[in-house]
Amino acid sequence: MINYSAFLPELFLVMAAILILVVELFLTPTSRRTILSWIAFLGTLAALLSLSCLSGSCPAGCNLGNGTEVAFNGFLKTDGLSLFFKMVILLATLLTLLMTFRYFKTHNTPYPAEFLAILLFSASGATALTSAQEIITLYIALETLTISSYLLASFMKKDKGSNEAGMKYLLLGAFSSALLLFGFSYLYGLTGTTVIAEIAKSLAMQASSPLAVFALILIVGGLAFKISLAPFHMWTPDVYEGAPTPVTAFLSVASKTAGFAAFIRLFWVGLNVPALQPVWVGLFGVLAALSIILGNLEAIPQKNIKRLMGYSSIAQAGYISTGFLAIGPMGLTAVLFYLFVYLFANMGVFLAIVIVSNKTGSEQIEDYAGMWKRSPLIGMVLLVCLLSLAGVPPFAGFSGKWYLFGAAISKGYVWLALVGMSFSVVSLYYYLQVVRQALIVDPKDSSPISISPLEKLVLVACVVITVTLGFWPKPVMDLAQAAASSLF
Question: Is the pTM of this model over 0.85?
Answer without folding.
Answer: yes
